[in-house]
Amino acid sequence: MRVFRMQDGADTAPYWLPRPCFHCDDPPCARVCPVGATFKRDDGIVLIDNERCIGCRFCMAACPYSVRTFNWSTPNDPAAATVRGYSPEWGYPRRVGTTEKCDFCPDMAREGKLPHCSSACPMGAIWFGDENEDAVTNSHGETLRLSKLLRDRAAYRQLEELGTKPRVYYLPPDNRHYPGPGEAATTPGNQTSAVVQR
Amino acid sequence: MSATTLSVPVYASELAARPGVMDVEHDMLATLRPMGRAGRLWIASLLAICVMAFVAWLYQIANGLRVTDMRNYVSWGAYMTNFVFFIGISHAGTLISAILRVTDAGWRRPITRMAEAITVIALLVGASMVVIDMGRPDRVLNLIFHGRFQSPILWDLVSITTYITGSVLYLYVAMIPDMPILAQAARAAGRSPRLVRLYEALSLGFRETPEHRRRLARALGAMAVIIIPVAVSVHTVVSWIFGMTIRPGWHSTIFGPYFVIGAIFSGTAAIITAMALFRRAYHLERYLRAEHFHKLAKILLTLSLLYAYFTLSEYLTAWYGGVAADSRLLHLLAGNTSFGMAFWLWAAFGLFVPIALLLFPTRRSLASIVAASVLINIGMWVKRYLIIVPTLQTTYLPASAAGVTPHYLPSVVELTITAGAFAAFLLLFTLFSRFFPILSIWETAEDEAEVGVRKSSPVQAHYGRALAALAVTLMAGALTSFVPVRAARAQPPVHAGASAPVGSTNLRIAIRRSNEQGQDMLVGTITAQGRPVAGVTVAFSVNRAFGNMTLGTDQTLSDGSAAIPFPQGLPGNAAGQLRIHATIQAPAEVAGLSVEAMIPGGAPLHAVTGLEPRALWSTRTPLALVVTIGGLLLCVWSTFAFVAGQLVAMSHIQPEE
């Protein structure tokens, strides 16, 4: 996951923007895929089948968030990652000439575990959950009611105007609880809640 | 004349009866005579470049696309530029040949063959560029096995395949009357009997009879009409590869017509360039006269003004509107950047200089027309590059904010393959001209009056019906819309309760939902051997996929009950039950004791299946799209079938004894 150091206007406060895949409800990438290698599941997750991908990179051109990456050369997979065979749910073994992206770790969710980005965040800034349960959880083990969190903290989504219906919400900095970029020791400061519908 | 079959003397006598044909034939077959040293060197060097490009492609397959300079931000580059460029060039055939044939412009005759050949060859080269650009060319058949018609790539696949088929058919139909002449000439020149037999087979037994003429006119008339909408569709859907994305600079409503005009523009320039080359190489000055260059120059001027108009329209609206993303793109494209330099060089030398060269009829010369054409050809490659790369560098979430500076400049491998594409184009064109006359013998020898009769054949009425069917299918497609459906979730709450003993202690915690003084409450009652326990702090939480969500905390009263408001509208399982935990927090000696119970009252969770199954992102194609594409294809391919039927009928005409 790339973290952007954003500053929307010359006089506005800078902020960090961690960017996962937004698993849009109207995903431009899945629209344009000529072979159905990238697809949206009923649980809302957008995945890539790298055994079908032809490497045309149309999805990369179509994604307005520039989330997708491409295996330009043969990937160097850790041996442990490849032992269980391939599934779009974990994407290993990766294949040269195919597209990949953040997948919300659906294999972890099956085990009831948070995705790596969320569980690894020391600030507990990245929340993840099942929208059907109306709850999100962070790495500190806190679980909050999603609808209330989004309402109380005035959550917004990236590039809402493009009509992609992203499934990731951002919580604006709340009295700058954390230092912004360049203000102190840098840690992603605004809270992010990644939400997946199952 | 070494006549060995019956048909040849008959044909020869017909030839002799038409004045001037022998002369024309002699000149037209010039390209087929053995090559000189320069010619052999030309072919050898083109072949060498093609081999180098092929090796470069093998290297790219072995090492992945890392050998290109394309990366995650700029993920398309020179190959896509080549693709758009060659598909654009292919429009030469449509304009010159089909439009001029349909409008019955007599001067087209020496040009049509060349134009039609350019179409076929440019299409083959252009289509191969897509495969070279693919990360997994080994999986190209997935486009057929798993093709999704919602993707513009499938539209491209279908329309380009149709265009290739149509333009091969068109090229061939217009070549049939030349085949007997070729067979005869090849036999006379002592070429291999196999080649002679090939020409004879391709001639379909064509002779100068009214019946043959009628069939040929029908086939040619139908092809000339149908190939125009097919060609327009091809470059429209090529533009839609870009236009259907929501990126600045691509998501533009004029992209279809902009690309079509650009294609005809570069195609016309290409044919003038090709005419100049062939005229010089084979001394065809008698047929490719100044008149032809001047007439094409007028068309080219019109198209260059149109292209300038479209370009202005495209970028001026984006600049004036000043949307942030558009402004960033325009700064990159036309500002003080390397793209900006290329853009203004293109505007100067790819557009304004050619316009100046073509503008004044009195100043137009062959040299200036050809110079304008060459400049336009180079310029249009650059323009396509400038359409593709700067937009890919202009992202909504600025790459610079992530510490990335997107950049792209074609690598050696990409440049080699690009050179190979141009070499392959020239090589195929040269080879074509070695086996088939590059000017249409029969059309060049034909007098004007004959053509007039041919044009009023019933073929166009047939096409009129096809057009009507096409319009109906289009309208049907437009009328169909998609209605997204979402499952409702609300369900009336149910009051109930549950209790459980706690571990090894003799405490019991009972959890229930109850209505107390009109308030919906979640109540936990703590008892020890049946007696209520007061002063215990109980935390209630509900189980969620990744953790327990705290609902509230309360202290037990004298009746042993702790109560919090029941969480309203919280989704439960499919039966509407919530897995509620009651955990004791104080006093310390029993803290951490916890029970869980399934309490009804949650909103039941419905399994959501078949979410918007006909949406554009769905794996299933919307019916309207299938009907539209199918209808269009049916119109075009049935015309192809009609043409093929005419050819079959022609080959079955009995010789009149």
Helix and strand layout, with pairings?
The complex is a heterodimer of chains A (198) and B (657).
Chain A: E1 2-6, E2 15-19, H1 28-32, E3 38-40, E4 46-48, H2 58-62, E5 69-70, H3 79-82, E6 99-100, H4 106-110, H5 116-120, E7 126-130, E8 135-137, E9 143-145, H6 146-152, E10 168-170, E11 192-196
Parallel strand pairs in A: 7-11
Antiparallel strand pairs in A: 1-2, 3-4, 5-6, 8-9, 10-11
Chain B: H1 7-17, H2 21-28, H3 37-63, H4 78-89, H5 91-102, H6 109-133, H7 142-145, H8 152-173, H9 179-188, H10 193-202, H11 210-243, H12 255-282, H13 290-321, H14 324-334, H15 338-359, H16 366-393, H17 412-435, H18 441-445, H19 448-455, H20 459-479, E1 497-501, E2 507-516, E3 519-528, E4 531-532, E5 537-544, E6 547-555, E7 561-565, E8 577-586, E9 594-600, H21 623-651
Antiparallel strand pairs in B: 1-2, 2-3, 3-4, 3-7, 5-6, 5-8, 8-9
Overview of this protein structure:
- The complex is a heterodimer of chains A (198) and B (657).
- In chain A, 16% of the residues lie in helices and 20% in strands.
- Chain A has 198 residues and is an alpha+beta fold.
- Chain A folds into 2 domains: 21-103, Alpha-Beta Plaits (2-Layer Sandwich), CATH 3.30.70.20; 112-198, no CATH class.
- In chain A, the strands form 5 sheets. In chain A, strands 7-11-10 form a 3-stranded mixed β-sheet. In chain A, strands 1-2 form a two-stranded antiparallel sheet. A two-stranded antiparallel ribbon of chain A has the order 3-4.
- In chain A, strand 3 (38-40) and strand 4 (46-48) form a beta hairpin.
- Mean pLDDT of chain A is 88; it is low at 185-192.
- Chain B is α+β, with helices and mostly antiparallel strands and 657 residues long.
- The longest helix of chain B has 34 residues, at 210-243.
- In chain B, the strands form 2 sheets. In chain B, strands 1, 2, 3, 4 and 7 form a 5-stranded antiparallel β-sheet that branches.
- Chain B contains 21 helices and 9 strands.
- Among the domains of chain B are: 247-409, no CATH class; 497-600, Immunoglobulin-like, CATH 2.60.40.
- In chain B, 58% of the residues lie in helices and 10% in strands.
- In chain B, helix 4 crosses helix 12 and helix 11 crosses helix 12.
- Chain B has helices at residues 7-17, 21-28, 37-63, 78-89, 91-102, 109-133, 142-145, 152-173, 179-188, 193-202, 210-243, 255-282, 290-321, 324-334, 338-359, 366-393, 412-435, 441-445, 448-455, 459-479, 623-651, and strands spanning 497-501, 507-516, 519-528, 531-532, 537-544, 547-555, 561-565, 577-586, 594-600.
- Chains A and B meet through strand 1, helix 1, helix 2, strand 5 and strand 7 of A and helix 8, strand 5 and strand 6 of B.
